[in-house]
């Protein structure tokens, strides 16, 4: 194992988030037109899902570090500021712009319950809505922003990891062991045969699947191991290929992607280091790209998926950069502001 190093300045996490965000755009360029991409053809995996696993692995590593640096109120303040300011602006802006692509009149569109649910429900994750009334009716997929589905599981993973850390600390249990035990429990729960017709069961399955890479990232941070060695990565990849058509294929695919992600995160690589130096537009790219791709399909019908992906990426850079510089980064600066000051004991 490599020796532990500074979380921010000795890794390629930011570069890998850029790669994951761009991979989601490429995946949707094919998926939104019901085409199969080259990656899916050769691996049997969805490229967008692979990118999400990368995101959750990185998040698990960084969030666990944050949980140990900050008291509980400051931890949740930081998490709120990272996700929700950018998200609520995104859902509001998206709803306004997509109105031009709806079959409804402006008045009917903005007074529709679905529009309000999209803005406020999705913006707060209290009631996620993926569609806007009358929008994209000529497209193969009618969603306005299908990428938002992962955010509720991200927050659920934060909460689960927080609880595991609190319980392990109070019980005197090794935190790394408790984290990986929770990850194994999720893997076992996912592997159990279930009938996934009920929405609650589908959501439970999604969470179990995504918490596995999240727990792997958190375990490596908690155990003070920067990354798996190449042999461990190779073993997980071989197992994933060998079990590709079994009932546990998703579990081993997620584990192999997580190990590969962490291995790449701590490799000395010039190209990744240069990409890592860029501003962190990955969140903005992730939440804005889907509606922009839907609009691109309407405005540029017949374009090849790759060309559509390039155009969408270039257009998405504008709102993503504005979101980072004027919303996300200023909001994150407020993490140092104590909204919950420590209670001082009065001298007796």
Question: Can you give a write-up of this model?
Answer:
- The structure is a single chain.
- The longest helix is centred in the C-terminal third of the chain and has 29 residues.
- This protein is mainly α and 348 residues long.
- Helix 4 crosses helix 14 and helix 8 runs antiparallel to helix 9.
- The protein has a domain of 229 residues.
- It is globular.
- The chain is built from 14 helices and no strands.
Shape: globular
Q: What class would the helix/strand composition place it in?
A: mainly alpha
Mean pLDDT: 91
- What percent of residues are in strands? under 5%
Based on the structure, what is the oligomeric state of the protein chains? single chain
Order of helices and strands: HHHHHHHHHHHHHH
- Share of residues in helices: 55-70%
Q: Give the end-to-end Cα distance, rounded to a whole number of Å.
A: 52 Å
- Enumerate the spans where pLDDT stays under 50 for 5 or more consecutive residues: 1-8, 343-348
Number of strands: 0
Rg over CA atoms, rounded to whole Å, is: 21 Å
Count of DSSP helices?
14
What's a quick, concise take on this entry?
α1 (13-31) packs across α14 (305-333), α3 runs parallel beside α7 (151-171) and α3 (47-69) crosses α9. The protein is 68% helix and 0% strand.
Task: Describe the structure using short key phrases.
348 residues, mainly alpha, disordered N terminus, disordered C terminus
Which helices and strands occur, and which strands form pairs?
Layout: H1 13-31, H2 38-43, H3 47-69, H4 72-98, H5 106-110, H6 113-124, H7 151-171, H8 175-191, H9 199-222, H10 230-242, H11 249-265, H12 270-276, H13 282-299, H14 305-333
Helix pairs in contact: 1-3, 1-12, 1-13, 1-14, 3-7, 3-9, 3-11, 4-6, 4-13, 4-14, 7-8, 7-9, 8-9, 9-11, 10-11, 13-14
